[in-house]
Design a protein that fits this description.
It is built from three helices and nine strands, in the order αβββαβαβββββ. By secondary structure, the chain is of the alpha+beta class. Strands 1, 2, 3, 4, 5, 6, 7, 8 and 9 form a nine-stranded mixed beta sheet that branches. Strand 3, helix 2 and strand 4 form a beta-alpha-beta unit. The longest helix is centred in the middle third of the chain and has 16 residues. It starts with a helix and ends in a 6-residue tail after the last strand.
Length: 166
């Protein structure tokens, strides 16, 4: 855990305070971690949490993805793309149907370059700030990827994450 704490604190400590593995900056914690390391320690991370969400009237098992981070000294090397490929493989092994992530508009092109596809729909979740306030959004980028099922089989309809985002 200390290696992950060092990676996240190097990036976010000044703005967000110390990293907490049980509630990372108010987001849902990962239960599966894909890591990259070298002789200096952990230099990359992508995590996901297995969860059933609602899409329209259908329950969908997803790997809610978050904590995507590459150490500044390793950026531009292709490591982020490699981690995103490995997390998709881990999701397939974990038996979830799709990867799911929400992100800022400025980083969406990176995920799209890693074979994640943008979908447009309304999404509902609990606020990461207090864990109880319901947030509904239609303008935040939402991306999915294939894990056990092809993206073409993603159901239509609004999304309810049944918890805080990742």
């Amino acid at each position: 855990m200390e290696g992950l704490r060092s990676l996240f604190d190097a990036e976010y400590y000044e703005k967000c305070g110390p990293w907490n593995p049980d509630s990372p900056y108010g987001y849902s914690p990962a239960d599966v971690h894909v890591l990259a390391a070298n002789s200096l320690g952990i230099i990359g991370h992508v995590g996901f949490q297995r969860r059933l969400i609602d899409v329209g009237s259908i329950e969908v098992p997803v790997g809610g993805t978050g904590g995507v981070l590459v150490a500044s000294r390793a950026r531009g090397t292709g490591l982020g793309t490699l981690l995103m490929r490995r997390v998709r493989e881990a999701m397939h092994t974990a038996g979830v149907d799709f990867g799911y992530l929400g992100c800022r508009e400025d980083v969406a092109p990176f995920y799209e370059s890693c074979w994640w596809q943008r979908i447009r729909t309304r999404a509902r979740c609990f606020s990461r700030l207090d864990g109880t306030t319901v947030i509904e959004s239609t303008d935040t980028p939402i991306l999915i990827c294939s894990a056990a099922k092809p993206v073409a089989s993603w159901p239509s309809g609004p999304i309810d994450l049944r918890g805080t985002p990742w």
